[in-house]
Structure prediction request, 113 residues.
Amino acid sequence: MNKNWIKVFVAAFFEVFWVIGLKHANDFWTWAGTIIAIIISFYVMIMAGRKLPVGTVYAVFVGLGTAGTVFSETIFFGVPFKVEKVLLILLLLAGVIGLKLVTKDKVQKGDES
Prediction:
């Protein structure tokens, strides 16, 4: 896995925080943290999208962010655990992993640095 795919995973990690923040932010500091997470998430995703296929980057970003958000809600916020939801998330992740596996990383001139 190269550094650009790591950027996608980092962006998805921060996506989980800002999505949760949009629901639970209620004062200046939680809103500030949510905005910072949005900025970091999109900046890192855009940087990865400059080197990797944008459609695949976005699909992986959204898939991992969705899975992370659902699992975080269950673990930290007491949302009821549903087997159907977990199976659908696993199906989503299988599709995301499949996209990553079939996508060829094309190195452009000048990208080696």
Remarks:
- The mean pLDDT is 87.
- The radius of gyration is 16 Å.
